[in-house]
Amino acid sequence: MDLYEHEARELFADHGIAVPEAEVVSLAKEAGPAAERLGGRVVVKAQVKTGGRGKAGGVKFAADAAAAQLTARQILGMDIKGHTVRKVMLARPVDIEAEYYVSFVLDRAAGAFLAIASAEGGMEIEEVAATRPEAVARILVDPAEGVTPAKAAEIAEAAGLPAATAPVIQALYQVLVREDAVLVEVNPLVRTTDGLIIALDGKITLDDNARFRQARWGDTETDPGDDPLEVAAAAKGLNYVKLDGGVGVIGNGAGLVMSTLDVVAGCGAEPANFLDIGGGASAQVMADGLSVILSDPDVKSVFVNVFGGITACDAVAEGIVQALESVQLTKPLVVRLDGNSAARGREILEDRAHPLVQQVTTMDGAARQAAVLANAG
Ligand SMILES: Nc1ncnc2c1ncn2[C@@H]1O[C@H](COP(=O)(O)OP(=O)(O)OP(=O)(O)O)[C@@H](O)[C@H]1O
Ligand SMILES: [Mg+2]
């Protein structure tokens, strides 16, 4: 799960990293009083889970409370790379002398964490990394040793950051480890004109597998995005992503679904979605999945591609039959069952003899059929 900047800011503060005083509002009329409390002059910052907010006009200075309200009104509702701005953070401005970049990321290949740091932080960091990679230091951190004061000093020195950043680098690593993050990034980490080191912007990605032991996020919604079908699917706990085509796809296992998308595309049709119903594939999950896919007006046909493993095909077939009781099928459904108990599963569907359901025994053949139906529909 990615955190919003204001959530990252809170975690930084919890771990002793200096951050600017700030407030979050979702209505423009709340921005004025909030700015007043912060001293009048503020930076108004769009809270969206994507980068490049500044360049998109989502980070603006306001000279006083009245200006803050107007600026908040401009930024709220703005679209930044497909993300609608629903909240803005108002932050007390600081006088910047230098902007740095510091991050820690899990490096799976190395089996370690990677510290990335640069003395040329700020909004052009991607440009710096692309054109002058030598300006960006990369140092592996052995997770068994962690970031000691000596290691933090080494990272700061390699990147050309002042020694005063070392304690912040160490604290940032604590955020990574203690909060179960796979990425923490501060850009910019600044040195103010009076010599303070302050984190002005933060990005944190938490490890979803560790969520059970991070109680504070227990009831935080994972951001389902703006697509109403994705919101509905997320509410049902489905692993669903909306795509642009006309063939609805349901499969068991992310790998199988990914290859199903490829095969459908190879048959001259575009998939309408990714939907992995996982290992269980109960009747309820099948019904939930079908109802989400069928409510997508772009869907012209549905391809259910199941390879029976621990969940046998007869259980999946029963699931489809039961789903047909609760979901009104409005589009043709092509089913391919293979693997464990495939023969029994096919029999169950044949006995049900639904006029809109047809079975094809191979993945290629079924994809072709679903593509033909979608292109005709
Ligand atoms: N509290 C602040 N005081 C002074 N300047 C600020 C403050 N917050 C941000 N800025 C300035 O605005 C720039 C952009 O802010 P920020 O890094 O938060 O947005 P961004 O980098 O465009 O967003 P993202 O990191 O999502 O791409 C910073 O590099 C900094 O120069
Ligand atoms: Mg930034």
Strand proportion, as a percent range, falls in 25-35%
CATH topology of the largest domain: Rossmann fold
* Secondary structure tally, helices: 12
Count of discrete structural domains = 3
* Helical coverage, percent range: 25-40%
How far apart, in Å, are the first and last alpha carbons? Answer: 38 Å
List the SSEs and their pairings:
Blueprint: H1 5-14, E1 22-25, H2 28-37, E2 42-46, E3 59-62, H3 65-75, E4 79-80, E5 83-84, E6 88-91, E7 96-107, E8 112-118, H4 125-131, E9 136-141, H5 149-159, H6 166-178, E10 181-192, E11 197-199, E12 202-206, H7 228-235, E13 239-242, E14 247-251, H8 254-266, E15 273-276, H9 283-294, E16 301-308, H10 313-326, E17 333-339, H11 342-352, E18 357-359, H12 363-376
Parallel strand pairs: 14-16, 16-17, 17-18
Antiparallel strand pairs: 1-6, 2-3, 2-6, 4-5, 7-8, 7-10, 8-9, 10-11, 10-12, 13-15
The site of magnesium ion has 2 residues, from loops.
Task: Give a nutshell description of this structure.
The chain is of the alpha+beta class. Helices cover 36% and strands 26% of the residues.
What can you tell me about this protein's structure?
- The protein is α+β, with helices and mostly antiparallel strands and 377 residues long.
- The protein folds into three domains: 21-91, ATP-grasp fold, A domain (Dna Ligase, domain 1, 2-Layer Sandwich); 96-217, D-amino Acid Aminotransferase, Chain A, domain 1, CATH 3.30.470; 228-376, Rossmann fold (3-Layer(aba) Sandwich).
- The protein has helices at 5-14, 28-37, 65-75, 125-131, 149-159, 166-178, 228-235, 254-266, 283-294, 313-326, 342-352, 363-376, and strands at 22-25, 42-46, 59-62, 79-80, 83-84, 88-91, 96-107, 112-118, 136-141, 181-192, 197-199, 202-206, 239-242, 247-251, 273-276, 301-308, 333-339, 357-359.
- Strands 7, 8, 9, 10, 11 and 12 form a six-stranded antiparallel beta sheet that branches. A four-stranded antiparallel beta sheet has the order 1-6-2-3, with helices on one face. Strands 14-16-17-18 form a four-stranded parallel beta sheet, sandwiched between helices.
- The longest helix has 14 residues, at 313-326.
- The radius of gyration is 26 Å and the shape is elongated.
- It starts with a helix and ends with a helix.
- The model has no long low-confidence stretch (mean pLDDT 93).
- The structure holds adenosine-5'-triphosphate (ATP) and magnesium ion (MG).
- Residues 187, 201 line the site of magnesium ion.
- ATP binds at residues 45, 52-54, 94, 99.
- Mg(2+) binds at residues 187, 201.
- Pathway: Carbohydrate metabolism; tricarboxylic acid cycle; succinate from succinyl-CoA (ligase route): step 1/1.
- Its EC number is 6.2.1.5.
- It catalyses: GTP + succinate + CoA = succinyl-CoA + GDP + phosphate; succinate + ATP + CoA = succinyl-CoA + ADP + phosphate.
